[in-house]
From TrEMBL, chain A:
Belongs to the nicastrin family. Gene3D superfamilies: Zn peptidases. The keyword Glycoprotein applies. GO terms for molecular function: aspartic endopeptidase activity, intramembrane cleaving; ATPase binding; endopeptidase activator activity; growth factor receptor binding; protein-macromolecule adaptor activity. This is Nicastrin. PANTHER family: NICASTRIN. One of its GO terms (cellular component) is cytoplasmic vesicle membrane. It is a single-pass type I membrane protein. It comes from Cricetulus griseus. Residues 49-223 form the Nicastrin small lobe domain. Component of the gamma-secretase complex. The functional gamma-secretase complex is composed of at least four polypeptides: a presenilin homodimer (PSEN1 or PSEN2), nicastrin (NCSTN), APH1 (APH1A or APH1B) and PEN2. Binds to proteolytic processed C-terminal fragments C83 and C99 of the amyloid precursor protein (APP). Interacts with PSEN1 and PSEN2. The keyword Hydrolase does not apply. The chain crosses the membrane at residues 670-690. SUPFAM superfamilies: Zn-dependent exopeptidases.
UniProtKB/TrEMBL annotation, chain B:
GO terms for biological process: amyloid-beta formation; Notch receptor processing; Notch signaling pathway; protein processing. It comes from the Eukaryota. It is a multi-pass membrane protein. Signal peptide: none annotated. One of its GO terms (cellular component) is gamma-secretase complex. Keywords: Membrane, Notch signaling pathway, Transmembrane, Transmembrane helix. This is Gamma-secretase subunit APH-1. It comes from Cricetulus griseus. Component of the gamma-secretase complex.
Length: 709, 257
């Protein structure tokens, strides 16, 4: 054998081959969705994860391991089924598929902390009935960030007097060490249960046989411990690293505000200019990320305020009113008053055209859709009324409200019998800064009437917005529900009250909110955002923001969100004027006489479809609607451990997905490995022997004088 | 199915090929070069068949249904024919190359055509095995196993054993094919082509993996015995080797010359 170079060993060739092999493995691994992968996994596409949120001191939410959590599936439909998961089952860890009605505090207490037996949780959507309730929020929302504390109003602090959210179980503010996902699609839930029935059911008490149906959930969160820790780590990364790895983002968005009479936003109002503030909140939340229908907790209130704004703008002597009216929609109130605390901070530091001194009175809309027996309650703050002048102002305010409400028999304004604390509202942040006279209008006297406060079930059904069957979407859009009529009445009361508070005298009774507007807004925000009216009021590049389902009201970290944009443009459409400027003039109105970018905001919107339904007729809408940044002052001042301002932040993540597949037993895997080793060793031995005896085994053909190997 | 199955299936499919490489090819750089050239020829043959396959698919407009299955069968048959064609082409190339190499350095002994037959067969086999199995292997690393849609849960093991048999078959086909070319016995080429077609079309019998595997292994045993005899082995040499009487045989051989 010509093996003079045999001693150098197999280095160059074998290294090359190994490299080729590993390269092809990597390349094959990069192929997504190939047919073998489709044979193994069924991805679950319509799911919502539970993510990690952090505040100054704590982390809440859920966490999975970095390469996902895998567990054998077990369907829990009754509480007894939990026994298998917690003690009896022979193949831990288990992935529990929980019925929606069992997703309560008792069951979660049992599951929490048992990470050796529980790999994760998947919750199905339940059908809420008339007696059930589910609120994952705490019983005393935004405690510690309002006006009542141990040093000021201690008898009202920590909801000692009135527990606002009585039905709250606080699950959304707990920290779980396993992933929890919501299964939004009925069909996917059926597929999962079918897989479970085919493979995982034990036959007559014995253990179920492999392969078993399993589920894997990926939701690894990068931030830990608290906002202070994660912001510090992000800060260090962005300062010293070339490729910074940010781990969390503060919750932020924009507040929407507009004035009844236009003001110069580049300057500030004179101290003599008095403003009546009408405020409400835009956002809500739930246990799961970006699922927040918020019908009663947010939508009904801001829809009412939108209708009131439209009605007030139609009054004929608006331009001559002695006081101005500011409509403001705060974003982020769910998370310790992000929007209102930022607005107060800006007002105090001169960054907002309206100052705290300009505020004459404050009317806030709380939750207003679930009124029992026509009552609309007026809540005022007892602590600030200890001051005589404030007490008189509040008294005047209440009298004005009652006078305006007298003209609307469907709404009965009621005062509280005894001094009661303010419910969680933006007014509390303003009162922290200055004693102003304010009132919160709500449908509840004591605790909330909302049985699904800040949960996934706070949908259109919760406020009785239902439509007859077999109607087209266009018919549904214009169908006036009873809820719409009720909210229109509340809007009428609010608009008339604001008119009187602004000093108007003549046309109070002619101010009327339009139920058609209210029902179209309710349909768009709660049932189907992609409708003809919403499409006509938005800018062209925002078309894709409208889904075929309802809009979600979670504040999120990218801004502005879909909901903020839609509310901004709805307010512009309802209170603004269509001008006949061209597109270029609309984008730059400085050259047009009588138009001023400091006074007004100009936007080029799509407009309605023309009569052939082929093209849109865009137009320029001029309004006083603007966006104001709603980022907590704690992040502006870099006080990440602040107890004064909201410090909520959301963790970042790379990959969130869920999938089901079959798993084989550990014994089969081990057998495969040993068989592989066996074949390798056997073939090495046989090849060595054959190679050593090759010149005996393989006789070369006799050629005189030639040597073959 | 996790790392255990990944390594187990990798060793089952590529263990013998690795052993053959380590002990017979890696010692001589010239053999490595011929191995890699053989692998390259197989790759080019696959490229050509995939070009044809793509054209046919464009012509039939990617419609779904039974026509896709017929197209697949047609594609496999075409690919087998092209692979054997490239084996013939490699033989021609090696023939020309060994004449050229002999003229460049006459003292240096070049590998014989029988050895090159074995090396080229191994090259074809390794590349074919890698191409067909690496994709499946990478999916076996994940936590799941095949079966949720009703397929057999032994998919990975079956694929690994099938890959093993294909690699060994390519080695034996290479030896037999080159011998047929050398001796100008063209019916041998036809037999190689027919057995290759038989083994490939049998894979369409899935999910009846057992039948498929057993018949493939039987064909491999027959081809192995044929290749052993073609390569110069005989019953006598095998008996001598097994009874450890080889030293006497060598001495006898040397004396007789």
């Amino acid at each position: 054998m010509a093996t003079t170079r045999g001693g150098s060993g197999p280095d160059p060739g074998s290294r090359g081959l190994l490299l080729l092999l590993s390269f092809s493995v990597i390349l094959a691994g990069l192929c997504r969705g190939n047919s073998v992968e489709r044979k193994i996994y069924i991805p679950l596409n319509r799911t919502a994860p539970c993510v990690r949120l952090l505040n100054a001191t704590h982390q809440i939410g859920c966490q999975s391991s970095i390469s996902g959590d895998t567990g054998v599936l077990h369907v829990v439909e009754r509480e007894e089924d939990l026994q298998w998961v917690l003690t009896d089952g022979p193949n831990p860890p288990y992935m529990v598929l929980l019925e929606g009605k069992l997703f309560n505090r008792a069951v979660m207490e049992k599951l929490k902390g048992r990470t050796s037996r529980i790999a994760g949780l998947a919750v199905t959507l339940a059908k809420p009935n008339s007696t059930s309730s589910f609120s994952p929020s705490v019983q005393c929302p935004n405690d510690g960030f309002g006006i009542y504390s141990n040093s000021y109003g201690s008898e009202f602090a920590h909801c000692k007097q009135t527990l606002w959210n009585e039905l709250g179980n606080g699950l959304a503010y707990e920290d779980f060490s396993f992933p929890i996902f919501l299964l939004e699609d009925e069909n996917e839930t059926k597929v999962i249960k079918q897989c479970y029935q085919d493979h995982n059911l034990a036959q007559n008490g014995s253990a179920p046989r492999f392969p078993l149906c399993a589920m894997q959930l990926f939701s690894h969160m990068h931030a830990v411990i608290s906002t202070a820790t994660c912001m510090r780590r992000s800060f260090i990364q962005s300062t010293f690293s070339i490729n910074p790895e940010i781990v969390c983002d503060p919750l932020s968005d924009y507040n929407v505000w507009s004035m009844l009479k236009p003001i110069n936003t580049s300057g500030a109002l004179e101290p003599d200019d008095r403003v009546v503030v009408a405020a409400t909140r835009l956002d809500s939340r739930s246990f799961f990320w970006n699922v927040a229908p918020g019908a009663e907790s947010a939508v009904a209130s801001y829809v009412t305020q939108l209708a009131a704004a439209e009605a007030l703008h139609k009054a004929s002597d608006v331009a001559t009113l002695p006081r101005n009216v500011m409509f403001v929609f705060f974003q982020g109130e769910t998370f310790d008053y992000i929007g209102s605390s930022r607005m107060v901070y800006d007002m105090e530091n001169g960054k907002f055209p309206v100052r705290l001194e300009n505020i004459d009175s404050f009317v806030e809309l709380g939750q207003v859709a679930l009124r029992t027996s026509l009552d609309l309650w007026m809540h005022t703050d007892p602590m600030s009324q200890k001051n005589e002048s404030v007490k008189n102002q509040v008294e005047d305010l209440l009298v004005t409200l009652e006078k305006s409400g007298a003209g609307v028999p469907e709404v009965v304004l009621r005062r509280q019998n005894q001094s009661q604390a303010l419910p969680p509202s933006s007014l509390q942040r303003f009162l922290r800064a200055r004693n102003i006279s304010g009132v919160v209008l709500a449908d509840h006297s004591g605790s909330f009437h909302n049985r699904y406060y800040q949960s996934i079930y706070d949908t259109a059904e919760n406020i009785n917005v239902t439509y007859p069957e077999r109607q087209s979407p266009e018919e549904d859009l214009n169908f006036v529900t009873d809820t719409a009529k009720a909210l229109a009445n509340v809007a009428t009361v609010l608009a008339r009250a604001l008119y009187e508070l602004a000093g108007g005298t003549n046309f109070s009774d002619s101010i009327q909110a339009d139920p058609q507007t209210v029902t179209r807004l309710l349909y768009g925000f709660l049932v189907r955002a992609n409708n003809s009216w919403f499409q006509s009021i938005l800018r062209q590049d925002l078309r894709s923001y409208l889904d075929d389902g309802p809009l979600q009201h979670y504040i999120a970290v990218t801004s502005p969100t879909n909901t903020t944009y839609v509310v901004q443009y709805a307010l512009a459409n309802l209170t603004g004027k269509v001008t006949n400027l061209t597109r270029e003039q609309c984008q730059d109105p400085s050259k047009v006489p009588n138009e001023s970018k400091a006074l007004y905001d100009y936007s080029w919107v799509q407009g309605p479809l023309n009569s052939n339904k082929t093209e849109r007729l865009p137009r320029c809408v001029r309004s006083t609607v603007r966006l104001a940044r709603a980022l907590s002052p704690a992040f502006e001042l870099s006080q990440w451990g602040s107890t004064e301002y909201s410090t909520w932040a959301e963790s970042r993540w790379k990959d969130i997905q869920a999938r089901i597949f079959l798993v084989a037993s550990k014994e089969l895997e081990f057998i495969t490995l040993t068989v592989g080793f066996g074949i390798l060793i056997f073939s090495l031995i046989v090849t060595y022997c054959i190679n050593a005896k090759a010149d005996v085994l393989f006789v070369a053909p006799r050629e005189p004088g030639a040597v073959s190997y | 199915m996790t790392a255990a199955v990944f390594f187990g299936c990798a060793f089952i499919a590529f263990g013998p090929a690795l052993a053959l490489y380590v002990f017979t090819i890696a010692t001589d750089p010239l053999r490595v070069i011929f191995l890699i050239a053989g692998a390259f020829f197989w790759l080019v043959s696959l490229l050509l068949s995939s070009v044809f396959w793509y054209l046919v698919r464009i012509i039939t407009d990617n419609k779904d249904g039974p026509i896709q299955k017929y197209l697949l069968i047609f594609g496999v048959l075409l690919s087998v024919c092209i692979q054997e064609l490239f084996r013939l082409a490699y033989y021609r190339l090696l023939k020309k190359a060994s004449e050229g190499l002999k003229s460049i350095n006459p003292e240096e002994t070049t590998p014989s055509m029988r050895l090159l037959a074995y090396v080229s067969g191994l090259g074809f086999g390794i590349m074919s095995g890698v191409f067909s199995f690496v994709n499946t292997l990478s999916d076996s690393l994940g936590p799941g196993t095949v079966g949720i849609h009703g397929d057999s849960p032994q998919f990975f093991l079956n694929s690994a054993f099938m890959t093993l048999v294909i690699i060994l078959l390519h080695v034996f086909w290479g030896i037999v094919f080159f011998d047929g070319c050398e001796k100008k016995k063209w019916y041998i080429l036809l037999i190689v082509l027919l057995t290759h077609l038989l083994v490939s079309t049998q894979t369409f019998l899935s999910p009846y993996y057992e039948l498929n595997l057993v018949s493939a292994y039987i064909i491999m045993v027959f081809m192995g015995i044929w290749a052993f005899f073609v390569a110069g082995g005989s019953c006598r040499s095998l008996k001598l080797c097994l009874l450890c009487q080889d030293k006497d045989f060598l001495l006898y051989n040397q004396r007789s010359r």
